[in-house]
Amino acid sequence: MRHASVRWLVMGSFMALASAGILATAQETPGAADVPEPMPVSDGTKVCLVCHGAKSDGGMGIYPAIAMQWEGSRHAQAGVGCLECHGVPEEFAGEDVDNPRYVTETAWDQTTGLKSTTLVTDGSGPVVRPDIWHHGGADIVVAVSPKSCAQCHPTEAEELYRSRHSSAGQFLGSVENFLGRYAEGPAAAINGCQQCHGGPVLMAAEQPTNESLAPVYAADTWPNSGVGRINPDGSWGACAACHARHEFSAATARRPENCGKCHMGPDHPQSEIYKESKHGIAYDANRDSLDIDVPGGEWVLGETYANAPTCSSCHMGPVGAHFGSKGLPLTHDVGARISWTLRPELSYQPAAIVDTDGEAWLKAPEERRDEMRQTCLACHGDNWVESFYTQYDQAVELYNNKYAKPMMAIYQFLSEQGIIDDVPMNDEIDYLYYELWHHEGRRARHGAAMMGPDYVHWHGFYEMTRHFYTEFLPLAMELGEAAGKGAETEAFIETTLRGEDGQDWERYHRWTEGLTAEQREEMLRWERAVYGGIHTE
Question: Which residue ranges make up each domain of the chain?
Answer without folding.
Answer: 12-204+215-241, 283-376, 382-498
